[in-house]
Design goal:
heterodimer, A: alpha/beta, Rossmann fold, 4-stranded antiparallel beta sheet, B: Arc Repressor Mutant, subunit A
Chain lengths: 303, 170
């Protein structure tokens, strides 16, 4: 089953497209990470999947074909928006009470146990909680509905390292316990490798690359060798080139057992390096000649 | 009896949120800067613990949920590591219970290991005194190790398997 499926999905705000020609199939049982710079379309895609925005073109379904925003879809998903909005003047207990009454399914026992574990006082007003506690409260309210798909928009961007770790530990423990699938957006690349096993790179409203992290890492590698031969070596599989006068590093689409050109060295690529390369080279997902690679390379010696 | 607070799971009384029931002898840690994939770090730590005798056959590996909660990593990563250990024949999953160490990578017991370590650090002191730096020590040790195994496989081939392990090496 796919937890999110889109076909030719697009969203236009007035004359600008926030998302365009987006076709995805995110399988269940993963932590899928949506990465890209600000304005890449991450929040737009999440809002479309939740049903908070209507597509301008194409379609989006969740949890095996339920139209986004339909009652059947909403029943199985939970969404924590950016900055975890809450009623700041309500106490934690009141937030629980409110959420329980607004939802068909709400596990009060889970929510209370979770908050006790975290040491979040029930009488404290939501607005008086620390940033980490507010995020944990919003997450607890979402998880107490026992969703099958949890969507998180930049969940850890505002949190300190410990709060970030604890927040992700809560999300991933729910995944281990409940089997909930997760789709989150983030621009914190460094932590992605331990968390995400499915990756979607968005740039300027378009999907650059998407797939299982293991597959992506296995199908790319970095070749290091003489700069003069870079174009021949790259062929039509280059994603990104960094070159000095003499030596060049090429990120190419290539399996681990592909032969390495004579005079070149092959290295495996890390997730962060891969993501950065695709973000720097919009259009890299299409096969193209090296000449088409961006010219204004900072490390390129031009004079 | 019954004074120790964290003696294995409360007998009879079903501890509902059973936190340290049947804990594993080891804990995992992650080195984010090592460049080694997360699942492989877990595999290597289990092998290392088996080699050093911290883990013995029958011991339980940390529960997936506990690893996830402690390290904030994807449960699929832990499952992948445990599957890898199963394929290598080092561990086996028991449905509903967890994953347990099945084989042994080292016959050396902990006290012997401590003694060996002590004599090795004696040797290291001597090497340092003779003026070898760290790289020199590693190079010397590696080449001696290679010689040792080459010689041993040679004498095995001739049918003279040396018995009775402890000979003074110093």
């Amino acid at each position: 089953m796919n937890v999110v499926e889109t076909r030719g999905l697009g969203k236009r705000y007035r004359s600008t497209w926030a998302l365009r020609e987006c076709t995805l199939a995110i399988p269940a049982g993963r932590v899928a990470a949506l990465v890209g710079p600000n304005g890449a379309g991450k929040t737009t895609l999440l809002n479309l999947a939740v049903g908070l925005a209507a597509p301008s073109e194409g379609e989006v379904t969740v949890l095996g074909g339920r139209p986004a925003g339909s009652p059947a879809a909403l029943d199985g998903i939970a969404f924590v928006a950016q900055d975890t909005p809450m009623y700041k003047n309500l106490s934690t207990a009141d937030m629980l009470h409110l959420t329980r009454n607004l939802n068909r399914r709400f596990d009060q026992h889970y929510a209370e146990a979770r908050l006790a574990d975290l040491g979040i006082p029930l009488k404290r007003k939501a607005g008086k909680l620390s940033g980490g506690q507010q995020a944990q409260l919003a997450l607890t309210l979402a998880l107490a509905r026992h969703p099958r798909l949890l969507l998180l928009d930049e969940p850890v961007a505002m949190l300190d390292p410990i709060a970030r770790h604890d927040f992700m530990a809560t999300v991933l423990t729910a995944m281990a316990d409940d089997g909930v699938s997760v789709l989150l957006s983030s621009h914190v690349l460094a932590e992605l490798e331990r968390v995400a096993d499915y990756l979607i790179v968005l740039s300027r409203g378009r999907v650059q690359v998407a797939g299982e992290v293991d597959d992506l890492l296995a199908s790319h590698r970095v070749l290091t060798g003489p700069a003069a031969e870079a174009a021949t070596c790259a062929g039509r599989r280059a994603v990104h080139l960094r070159r000095g006068e003499v030596q060049a590093h090429l990120l190419v689409r290539s399996a681990a057992d592909d032969p390495v050109p004579v005079g070149w060295e092959a290295h495996p690529v890390g997730l962060e390096e891969l993501v950065l390369a695709y973000l720097r080279e919009p259009g890299a997902s299409e096969p193209r000649e090296l000449a088409a690679l961006r010219k204004a390379e900072p490390s390129e010696v031009t004079k | 009896m019954g004074i120790g607070k964290e003696v294995s799971a409360a007998d009879g009384r079903g501890a509902p949120s059973g936190r340290g029931a049947a804990a594993s002898p080891i804990e995992f840690r992650l080195d984010a800067g090592s460049g080694v994939p997360t699942y492989l770090q877990l595999v290597q730590q289990v092998e290392h613990a088996m080699r050093l005798g911290y883990l013995k056959p029958g011991d339980q590996l940390p529960k997936v949920r506990d690893v996830v909660a402690a390290l904030a990593i994807n449960p699929n990563t832990v499952l992948k590591a445990y599957r890898d250990l199963e394929i290598k024949g080092l561990a086996a999953g028991r449905p509903g219970q967890g994953t347990f160490v099945q084989a042994t990578l080292s016959q050396v017991a902990l006290p012997e290991l401590t003694a060996l370590r002590r004599s090795l650090s004696g040797w290291l002191t001597a090497a340092d005194g003779a003026g070898l730096d760290e790289d020199g020590i590693v190079a010397l040790f590696t080449s001696a190790l290679r010689d040792f195994y080459e010689r041993r496989s040679g004498s095995r081939a001739r049918g003279g398997a040396a018995s009775g392990g402890t000979e003074g090496v110093a």
